[in-house]
Structures are given as structure tokens and as C-alpha cells.
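Reading group handout, session on sequence-to-structure problems. Before we discuss, look at one worked example. The prompt was deliberately terse, the way you'd type it at a terminal:

> structure Centrosomal protein of 120 kDa

The input record follows.
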Amino acid sequence: MVSRVADRLLIVVSVLEGRYFPKRPKHVLIVEAKFDGEQLATDPVEHTDQPEFATELAWELDRKALHQHRLQRTPIKLQCFALDPVSSTKESIGYVVLDLRAVQEKKQAAKWYPLLSNKYTKFKSEIQVGVVLETDSKALVDDYKAKDPPLRQGRAPALRSGLDPKSIVPILNEEEGYHQIGPAEYCRDYFVLSVTIAFATQLEQVCFLSMCSY
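And the output record:
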């Protein structure tokens, strides 16, 4: 089971921001990423001199496929476009090619990549991109669900006769710091509720959104 989960990976490309772009108030910028015939794209952002993309794009594959793509030198191509929302005209600004052979499972610092074939010839436009291999979190969750839940010691309380099941709802006792389930005269036992978080990822995005809310 462990080996099957470990074989499932995500290629995660983080398109963070840009610099040295001209300001075009009537246009927006998007970055389209293409790998192995599958295309993903960022949301449109303002066409400023320092556009903020702050987007992660990911492709799922296993280690065998990853090995083949590295042997074949399959590229990850990021194409930058300027879009006119009124006319829907899309102009190709330039592109970046990422080498999959250099991608590691250990997160590396994001790098600045100059746009190749840059349409803005008077500007040295660049985009900041990070790329990493991650274990597929969905695979970990599925694996966790497939296992039998851990046994808990204790006994399950029997339902008292005459009680309406709909009336048995948890009520928070703030002073004592616990939840009471059912009428007080029937509450005799204490139980501990355990919650297991199987896996977490992209927690840095939570911090980023929290800071943005201020």
C-alpha cells in the first residue's frame, strides 16, 4: 500500500509574479502552462509592470511516467498572453521552458525566467516560477480511508428508553470545557473525541490569504 501511494506524484508549478512588463490598463495577463498535451492556465491579472499571478498549476503522474518524460526531455512550456477583455483578442507575449530533469522532490527557491521571443522588445520581461515534485495528497487520503479505523477502548452507551433520538444534540458547557450530549440527568460517562488529520498541503497559501485579509 505504501509503495503504491509513493508512486503517485504531482508536478506543481507555482507562477508567482512578473517584472519589467509595460503597463497596459485595458489588458490583462494570463499564463498558460502545457505539459504532455494537458494545458492549464492562471486566472487573468492586471497588466501592470509587476503582475501578481500567485497561482499553482499541477499535473498528476506516477514515477514510471516521470522517468519516461525525463528520458524524452518532455518540456513544461509556460506561454504568457495579453488579453483584451472587450474584444477577447489574445496576444502571445513570450514563453518560458522548464526542464523536467531538474525538478526535485525537495522544494527549491523560485527563479526568475526571462520571456523568450518577448513581444515587448524594449522590456526585459520576466516571470518568477517555482517547480517541485510532491506526493499526491489525494492518494494519501484514499490510502488512509482504505485502512480500518483504529480501535478505541471503552463501551458505547445504550440509548435510554423514552428518549427521542432527535433531542440528543451536543450542547457546549463553556465553564467546564466540554460538550454535553443528551439531558443532564442521563449524562453519566465521559468520552474523548479524537480527530485525525490525515494530510495537509499548501499551508503557505492559508498564511498568504490571511495576510491579504488585513
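Points for discussion. First: Helices lie at 2-6, 63-71, 137-146, 203-213. Second: Residues 203-213 form the longest helix (11 residues).
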